[in-house]
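In this supplementary section we document a worked example of the pipeline. Step one takes a protein sequence of length 282 as its only input; no multiple sequence alignment statistics are reported here. Step two produces a three-dimensional model, which step three serialises into structure tokens for compact storage. The input and output of this example are shown verbatim.
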Amino acid sequence: MCAAIDMLASEQLFYGHSPPAGFLTDYTPPRRQTKITARGYSSPCLSVLKPVQLTLKSAPRSCIRLSTEKKKKHVVFADDRGFALEHVKFMTEPSHVPPYWAFKVVASPPVERKVKPVLDLWETRFVQPASDYLEFRRRITEECVSLENVIVKQNELAVDGTVKVKNLDYLKEVFVRTTPDGWSTKEDTYCAFIESGPLLQNGVSTYDTFGFQLQLPIHSRRLDFCVGFRCQGKEFWDNNNGKNYTIEKSSTKSSPAVSCARINYGNSWSVKADYNGNTPYW
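The serialised model returned by step three reads:
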């Protein structure tokens, strides 16, 4: 009987002394009372347990509160605030007259615009000799030398060209004579061999091709040149039929053309040109 009582008491003590949670308060542990019997020893006796009161501590709240209330949108018209619903502006000037500019806009300084510099381009004043094939072959056959083509390189201020000469002998000299000041001074530039023409039945070519490069003058706007050929103690020239080959510097900005006819001549032009395209006459 005592063993059963002890077991019951231990179970009650186990459930009565279970560790409380961290947020529980007002927990009072039970007190153990002893009882003296006739045998001289005491047996444990349990007192009535007090009811446990559980209280929950409120969790700390953040200082930032988000408003969950939705704001209602409302529309306000201009006439509710005392303003006009429309703004009308009447234009007094006719359609062909430019609009009136405010004085502040007119008096303000104009915006500076970057003016592009006028570039001077070098241009040839002759037709490329090779463009007229019959005349080109005649010069090689009869005069033994002829300028073929030239290319003006604006960025490099240089002129590249080719010359064809009659193959009279293996030893030959081909050069270009130039002048920037109307033949007051002159300079010879020797050409370099490029290739030979097609071979004949005897294994000899009819003509040879030479190349050259000229530097355009810096302090002059004109360059005249002609082609020379020395072979077998003779000298041959190609000077464009006595006019020389000319390369001039011209401006890219041209003068505006006349857009109206003269009154004295009605609707016809006052300038007339002859059939050869020479200097116009009045």
